[in-house]
Design goal:
heterodimer; A: 2 helices; rod-shaped; B: 1 helix
Chain lengths: 117, 50
């Protein structure tokens, strides 16, 4: 391969800025696309606040199903007894029941979760 | 192309073109290495790859 010959027919003063601009624009577009598809990616990393404090060992599946059914007809705001799916710091998921005083466990950006208490 | 001192339409000789191209290739490789490192860090710290 002798790709260097491109500079015999394309001026480097034109081709190099064009190449660098293409890299910058495509990189920016990929960043925007990833953040748009999964905004919570911004919340990972060493300084992320550790908000998963629910003790999952005491979850009773029957109880959680009953409570989920109870709030099935509730308005959009999440209240006590609502069953939520949380993502632990290591990436595993668990179902949790919200209890008063409100313990918020969520890996979503704060503005997507209504806090009533 | 048998004449090594021929000046092409862009004003470069073959040797100059190859020199410029070597810089571009080196720069691209450095960029690629940094991008690879960044992707490894993201893969470790997010659920992207489990």
């Amino acid at each position: 391969m002798n790709n260097a010959k491109i500079w015999l027919v394309v001026k480097p003063t034109v081709g190099i800025p064009l190449f660098l601009s293409a890299v910058a624009i495509s990189s920016f577009a990929v960043h925007v696309a990833v953040i748009t598809a999964a905004p919570n990616v911004l919340y990972y990393g060493p300084d992320r606040p550790e908000s998963a404090e629910v003790d999952t060992t005491s979850l009773d599946p029957a109880e959680s199903v009953a409570k989920a059914a109870k709030v099935a007809g509730a308005p959009l705001g999440l209240g006590e007894g609502a069953e939520v799916l949380i993502t632990m710091p290591d990436g595993t998921t668990a179902r949790a029941i919200l209890q008063a005083p409100t313990t918020v466990v969520s890996m979503r950006p704060p503005d997507t979760l209504l806090l009533e208490h | 192309m048998a004449d090594p001192d021929k000046v092409w339409p862009t004003g470069l000789t073959l040797a100059e073109a190859e020199e410029v191209h070597s810089y571009i290739i080196d720069g691209t490789r450095v960029f690629g290495a940094i991008a690879l490192l960044a992707h490894i860090l993201v893969a470790v710290s997010t659920p992207w790859l489990g």
